[in-house]
Amino acid sequence: MFTSVPVGSGDDEIYVANADGTNPTALTNNSQDDQEGTWSSNSQWIAFSTDRDGNREIYLMTPDGLNLTNITNNGARDAEPSWDH
Asked: Do residues 58 and 81 make contact, with C-beta atoms less than 8 angstroms apart?
């Protein structure tokens, strides 16, 4: 998993790719920065930080980029998600 700025977009998106770097696939696609993706230990979820609500928050999504869930919602800046393995 990695973060990249697609040409012409100006904002970060989260991608997955094969181990050899082939077949990069965007998991996020919106006008705000999505960054810092990290896999859960069972590979069922990805936690990431995003500005999509106007303030940096932590979200979860499934590995196909679906089932978005905001897990923080406050006035503070929430970033650098990590899993307790």
From this structure: yes
| Structure-block tokens of residue 38 | 């990290």
Distance (Å, whole) CA 35 – CA 79? 9
- 77, HSE (Cβ side, Cα atoms, 13 Å): 3
- Give strand ranges (E) for 1-85: 2-4, 13-16, 25-26, 34-39, 46-50, 57-61, 69-70
pLDDT tens for each residue of 22-47 = 999 999 998 899 999 999 999 999 99
Give this prediction's pTM. Answer: 0.89
| CB contact at 8 A, 75 and 56 | no
